[in-house]
Amino acid sequence: MERVHETDLPIEGWRHQVRFSTGLINPEWPKEFVILLGRRSTEDPWSSAALSAEDIGLRDELDDLGRWHVRMVWSMPELGESAPAWAVEMCAEEGQELGLRYGKDAIYVVRGDALFLRYCEDGREEVAE
Questions:
Q1: CB proximity list for 49: less than 8 A, separation 6 or greater
Q2: 26-68 per-position pLDDT tens digit
Q3: Which backbone phi and psi does 60 adopt, to 5 degrees?
Q4: What is the SS3 assignment for the chain?
Q5: Distance (Å) of CA 45 to CA 40, 85, 110
Q6: Which of 38, 49, 79, 94 is the most buried if burial means most Cβ atoms within 10 Å?
Q7: Which pLDDT score is estimated for 75?
Q8: Are the C-beta atoms of 69 and 23 separated by less than 8 Å?
Q9: CB 84 within 8 A of CB 102
Q10: Residue 102 in contact with residue 96, Cβ under 8 Å?
Q11: pLDDT tens per residue, range 69-104
Q12: Residues with Cβ < 8 Å from 55, sequence gap 6 or more?
């Protein structure tokens, strides 16, 4: 069974269904972890080679940290968008710093069963409703 988190998440005044999946069967989930997209938006003008390099760099850094992490797929079905993502056990502040290093505007934070969007620039969080 694949873990899927579906929620209506307010993002800068827009509402979209956000979905995460791992393809893993009943993995152990930490009480708090962050989710970072492995690449930038498909609207970003970077080449696919640059996007792949960014994702590989993030994976290598997560491996070096030695913390629990798992590959995920992030998607917004209604917009037809998807991207590779990484879930990693760390607090929101650490995730925010990691997101800033990789040029992310925001990261997702999971605490228990609650999902938050955290902006990397200022640490502001929005809760999924």
A1: none
A2: 778 899 999 998 765 444 544 566 667 778 888 899 999 999 9
A3: -60, -40
A4: CCCEEEEEEEECCEEEEEEEECCCCCCCCCCEEEEEECCCCCCCCCCHHHHHHHHHHHHHHHHHHCCCEEEEEEEEHHHCEEEEEEEECCCHHHHHHHHHHCCCCEEEEEECCEEEEEECCCCCEEECC
A5: 9, 19, 29
A6: 38
A7: 81
A8: no
A9: no
A10: no
A11: 998 888 877 778 788 889 999 999 999 999 999 888
A12: 38, 39, 84
Q: Specify the length of the chain in residues.
A: 129
Beta-carbon count within 10 A of 95 CB: 23
Q: Return the structure tokens found at 62.
A: 């997560």
46, two tokens? 């970077």
**What strand order describes the sheet that includes 14-21?**
4-11, 14-21, 69-76, 81-88, 32-37, 106-111, 114-119, 125-127
pLDDT at 6: 45
- Residue holding tokens 């850094």? 61
